[in-house]
Input
Amino acid sequence: MPSPPIVLVPGFWLGAWAWDEVISELRADGHDANAVTLPGLESVDADRSSITLADHVDAICDVVTAAGCPVVLVVHSGAGAPGYAVTDRMPEQIKSMVYVDSAPAVGPLNSDFSAVEMPLPSIEELATEENLDGLSDEQLETFQSRAVPQPGGVLRGTPVLSNDERLGVPSTVICTGFSSEQIRAAAAEGYAWLGGLNELLDVTYVDLPTSHWPMWSRPRDLAAILGDIAPGSQAA
Output
């Protein structure tokens, strides 16, 4: 039987293009893989003033539904918040959940953020907050030139989590910028963006030491991990 479709969702400031290299690798190995551009991130000219976390959840649900069968849902970074909410809304449609340097958030990513949008910080500022290991100057320049401000409403939104069926969705956390040991320790401290790790019943951790954007710094290795997860989900 064919492996399930793989749906990839990028994190802050990014569109579907961010997954291009990983998708090429997955498709070369025979996988059905496609990426999503979330509302407000289509272009710098998009209207982000009324975009909410719920809009991002709806957009991912629409893509999952369109696949016509249960999928492997892959979310990166800040997309962990809407991604986890999708497993709450349609757990039967998620064969497996993959958090790429991300986690199942149970609360707002930044409840105090009040602006309409959050632009990408300078690379110098970004380097003080995120791991840039393995990223070339060219990749960082592309990131800066193609980045779109993140809708502020998404940062303030609280995921709707009311369906306990989400707790049984097999989940994998691919740890890149921080090790699995560091992620486990941070989850135990009670951070909302990691909160789901304390309640999920089936979580596997995979260490892939590299940048916070492994789809650029280690695309082949990331694709190989995702490809291994997809057939396993089909057999489950």
Q: What stands out?
A: The first helix runs from residue 20 to 28. Strands lie at 6-9, 33-35, 71-76, 94-100, 117-118, 150-151, 171-175, 203-207. The first strand starts at residue 6 and ends at 9.
